[in-house]
Amino acid sequence: MYGIVNKAIQDLVITNFGIEKWEKILQKSGIEEDFFISNEAYDDDITFKLAQAVSDEMKMPIKEVLIAFGEWWVVKTTKEKYGGLMESGGTTFKEFLINLPLFHNRVMLIYPKLTPPEFKISEISENSLNLHYFSKREGLQEFVRGLLQGLGIMFHTPATIELLQTRDSGNSHEIFKVSW
Predict the structure, then answer these.
(1) Which residues contact 128 (CB under 8 A, 6 or more apart)?
(2) Could you tell me the pLDDT band of residue 161, with boundaries at 50, 70 and 90?
(3) How many CA atoms lie within 13 A of 34 on its CB side?
(4) Sheet (strand 128-134) strand order
(5) Residue (of 162, 33, 93, 119) closest to 9 by Cα position
(6) Cα separation, 4 vs 8, whole angstroms
(7) pTM higher than the cut 0.85
(8) pLDDT digit string (tens) for 79-123?
(9) Distances (CA, A) of 15 to 21, 60, 106
């Protein structure tokens, strides 16, 4: 993952809990980097170690850490750093979700070494759709849930996200039913 992801975890912790808490988390994670360059690629293991260290230090289930980080990623990181890119995705929550399969094509122009997930949309209705999430990375479905919740916040659209299918149960990918 790119450094911007790790930097966003750092920003989330420092903003909400202070620099001392971040330093404890960094130490607990066992990673040697003490700062991250946004457009530099880092091993995924660093991100997972940081998330686990946050979970351990804050005594929160990793699932809750990933959801909180997903929301933060949309509401703070991407909104502040990539506002124009986010605005190009659509003017409503539903429109943004429908355009999501094409979104990472634009992101890859900024981060050419990115290994993005793939999204597909099905079962579109007036107030819901199914979002299919395909990724080489496992264990991020709750991060995706947080991203979806963050998009709902960004578009001022309360959303309910239900996990219909998961790789944890032997399926090929995750399917989320997103309702608003």
Answers:
(1) 177, 178, 179, 180
(2) very high
(3) 4
(4) 118-122, 128-134, 174-179, 160-165
(5) 33
(6) 6
(7) yes
(8) 887 788 788 889 999 999 999 988 877 777 777 777 789 999 999
(9) 10, 17, 29
Q: Is the Cβ–Cβ distance between 56 and 28 less than 8 Å?
A: yes
CA distances from 58 to 50, 65, 107, 131 (A): 12, 9, 32, 31
Q: Tell me the average pLDDT of the chain.
A: 91
User: When comparing pLDDT for 107 and 12, which is higher?
Assistant: 12
3-state DSSP call for residue 132? strand
5-14 b/e (C-beta count within 10 Å ≥ 16 → b)? bbbbbbbbbe
SS3 19: helix
Q: Which amino acid is at 178?
A: V
Q: Helix axis angle, 3-17 relative to 62-72, nearest 10°?
A: 100
